[in-house]
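Quiz preparation item.
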């Protein structure tokens, strides 16, 4: 009789501890910002790519074309609400900063060339635009949602990644950091 009560008590304690652990993990998950997942690419050279253009120039889009310049590489899609909201800010930034030696490149992913081109025209995007129809470039950069933005210094090293929509403060702070890093690079 005592043996059955002891076994019942031990099983009850184990179940309570297991339930407490599960509740603890779930609760912790509620407070994790999934947009701040660190990228393994930060601090590593940015992968070059060759993509078709959807901008007015029609010139193929690749990173090598901007060697020696800091680059803000933005992955977006025409159907993405956050991308639409971010679009105007990126264009204003580009107009204010393009003469400072920084380059903005927008890459449409999970989109059709027609829809991406139409959205870019309506949004008045004038920076370099390409489309990743196969999704390979997005995979190479570890993009798991749009928008995502990579800040690449003049030596071609990824310095920062923002998952989710950019804020003006992050955009300006990281652009300034790129410009400072680029001016001090050998």
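Solution:
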């Amino acid at each position: 009789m005592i043996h059955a009560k002891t076994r019942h008590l031990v099983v009850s304690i184990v179940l309570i501890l297991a339930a407490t652990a599960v509740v603890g993990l779930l609760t912790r998950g509620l407070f994790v910002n999934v947009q701040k997942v660190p990228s393994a690419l930060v601090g590593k050279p940015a992968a070059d790519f060759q993509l078709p253009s959807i901008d007015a120039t029609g010139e193929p889009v690749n990173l090598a074309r901007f060697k020696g310049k800091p680059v803000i590489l933005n992955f977006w899609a025409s159907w993405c609400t956050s991308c639409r909201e971010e679009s105007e800010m990126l264009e204003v930034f580009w107009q204010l900063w393009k003469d400072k030696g920084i380059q903005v490149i927008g890459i449409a992913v999970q989109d059709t060339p027609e829809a991406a081109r139409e959205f870019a025209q309506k949004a008045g995007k004038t920076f370099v635009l390409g489309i990743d129809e196969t999704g390979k470039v997005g995979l190479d950069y570890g993009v798991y949602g749009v928008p995502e933005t990579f800040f690449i210094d003049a030596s071609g090293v990824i310095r920062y990644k923002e998952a989710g929509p950019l804020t003006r403060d992050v955009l300006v702070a990281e652009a300034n950091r790129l410009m400072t890093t680029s001016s001090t690079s050998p």
